[in-house]
Amino acid sequence: MRSFLYFTAATLAACVLLICFLDQPLALFIHRHTGWAVPFFLAYTEGADHLHGWLLSQRLGPLPWPYVLVVVAYLVGRWGLRRPGASLFLLVLLVHIASQVSSNVLKGVVHRLRPEVLFGPGYEGLGLWASGPHNDSFPSSHTAGYLSLFWPLAVAWPRYRLPLLVLPGLIMLGRPILGAHYLSDVWFSTWLVVAWTVVLGGLLAWADRRAANKNPLANQG
């Protein structure tokens, strides 16, 4: 918890500094010097989006079947096989949904202009609470969506943290390179995912402890 509080304080300070002073010059620098990387990150992101969209389009009743499978895996593992570690299935799903919903809500509140407006006609000020198109930059929903699928796993399995974070890491790196987001957009979405993992992970751990206290046999395989 202490490390999360440190990260929260660093995120607040960094995002204020970036939004007020550094985001725009950094975006212009990246735009001018990383054009060679755009085709790779564009293809990578489009491929990930296509796969993610296809998976969610496969329905089992009103719900995407991957969601249903995750819930079934949790129920069978946690309450059928009595494995506390099966709560990780539910944690990933809850963090994913919470991160996406909260990032989209914030987009509709902050209304920050995207870097592509800066590269084109430009704008005065910080681009916050702006009207018109392309005003959904903060925070990055791509970062929230993809990182939320892997960060809870990376926390649970620190030995495999690096390979688990390759896919979302490339998505996150590509957002500024593609001119879709400022650095603070990506950073804040990262904090959102970490925060939801801490909060929801703590709630699930509390629920598991409470269930174990009520039924001492619940955690025995």
Automatic annotation (TrEMBL):
Coiled-coil spans in chain: none
The record's annotation in InterPro entries points to:
PAP2/HPO, PAP2/HPO_sf
Membrane-traversing stretches: 64-81, 88-106, 188-207
Among PROSITE patterns, the record links this protein to: PROKAR_LIPOPROTEIN
Which residue intervals define the domain Phosphatidic acid phosphatase type 2/haloperoxidase in the entry? 90-199
| Annotated Pfam families | PAP2
Q: Which domain of life is it from?
A: Bacteria
Protein name from the UniProt record:
Phosphatase PAP2 family protein
UniProt organism field = Hymenobacter aranciens
Q: What is the lineage of its organism?
A: Bacteria, Pseudomonadati, Bacteroidota, Cytophagia, Cytophagales
